[in-house]
Amino acid sequence: MSNKNNPFALPEMELVEKRLQEINSYDNPYLSEVTGYVLHQGGKRLRPLLVLLCSDIYGAALKTRVDVAVAAELIHSASLVHDDIVDNSSLRRGQLSTNKRWGNPSAVLVGDFLFARAYAILSSYPKILGIMTEAISSMCLGELRQMYCHFDPDTTPEDYIHTIVSKTASLITASCECGAIISPMPADEVRIISKFALHIGIAFQISDDISDYVLDADEAGKPQGNDIRNGIVTLPLMYLVANPDTRQRVQGLLNQKQPLEPKMLHQELEKTKAIQKSAAVACQHLDRGIELLGNFPARPSVMMLKELALQVKERCTALSQHAPLAQQPCQPCQPSSPQFGPR
């Protein structure tokens, strides 16, 4: 793909990176070390990219676009630091997580500090600040809802979608909405771009949940099987509970409330094609999102949003072609120690 069509090669992203480096200049070398580690762990910067693309459909002041994009990335980075503490995760993007490297107390404070930096930037944009803080509240509620539903075989698809809309899609939607409203975009189109973002956010989280079952730690950049080990019931597992042939064993395992491993469910995942079905749901959301883009003028930023959705769809399709992780012959799978917070 040429840089012209690659949304991640957007020139304004270089300004976002430069601003993040400037923000990471403190008199306290310890703080700079930890925050620099968090901000440069190799993420794709999806949320700031969405701010920049949505604000470019009708045009907006460059400084405002970069400010809001940087704030979106700071909020996202802070939330990941706190997520890793809650999940007791040891890896983030293939590197030691902040809590694993510096301990929970430092990680909590660094996450708080990054949130504060984002609020400081957004204080000049009260309407944007309101949207972003609402998204943060939604993220917290989503994580709490998930935390207290660990190992619950009665989790419904509606519960699942409600949770991922809160914990993942809310900030993606807020990023698109904020980008749109700092431009002259008509109000009805702002609502449409928010719906587009909602579908992208749902699909993005479903693909991440699928990766828990088919990618090892090196490929995923995070501990393999972390969700199921923590008793988080995501879409692939729901297909196992819904299938009469696999329901009894899976419900029995969940009711034990003991850490599980994806390899323990290899046969059930293969038999039910739960991975492929989950990927198909994600692709349906992406198709709906792409269809919504037809309501906008045919401008380069809209084409890049479509390309971004197609890249996520390509990832979902690739994940659906992975075989579920399987235990080695004659090597019984031993569950790891629990890695979940209070239930």
List the helices and strands and how they pair.
Elements: H1 12-23, H2 29-39, H3 46-56, H4 62-87, E1 91-92, E2 95-96, H5 98-102, H6 104-122, H7 126-147, H8 157-181, H9 187-214, H10 217-220, H11 226-229, H12 235-242, H13 247-255, H14 266-272, H15 274-292, H16 300-320
Antiparallel strand pairs: 1-2
Helix pairs in contact: 1-4, 3-4, 3-8, 3-16, 4-6, 4-7, 4-8, 7-8, 8-9, 9-15, 9-16, 12-13, 12-15, 15-16
* Overall pLDDT metric: 90
Helix content: 55-70%
Structural class, please?
Answer: mainly alpha
Give the class-level CATH name: Mainly Alpha
Tally of separate domains: 1
Query: Strand share of the residues?
Result: under 5%
Which runs of at least 5 residues are low in confidence (pLDDT < 50)? 329-343
Largest sheet: 2 strands, antiparallel
What is the CATH architecture term?
Orthogonal Bundle
Estimate the global geometry from the Cα principal axes. globular
- The CATH superfamily is Farnesyl Diphosphate Synthase
| Widest sheet: strand ordering | 1-2
CATH topology: Farnesyl Diphosphate Synthase
Walk me through the structure:
This protein is mostly helical. It has one domain (7-320): Orthogonal Bundle (Farnesyl Diphosphate Synthase). 67% of the residues lie in helices and 1% in strands. The protein contains 16 helices and 2 strands. The chain has helices spanning 12-23, 29-39, 46-56, 62-87, 98-102, 104-122, 126-147, 157-181, 187-214, 217-220, 226-229, 235-242, 247-255, 266-272, 274-292, 300-320, and strands at residues 91-92, 95-96. It has a two-stranded antiparallel sheet. A hairpin with a 2-residue loop joins strand 1 and strand 2 (95-96). Helix 4 (62-87) packs antiparallel against helix 8, helix 8 (157-181) crosses helix 9 (187-214) and helix 12 (235-242) crosses helix 15. The longest helix has 28 residues, at 187-214. It is globular, with a radius of gyration of 20 Å. The model is unreliable at 329-343 (pLDDT under 50).
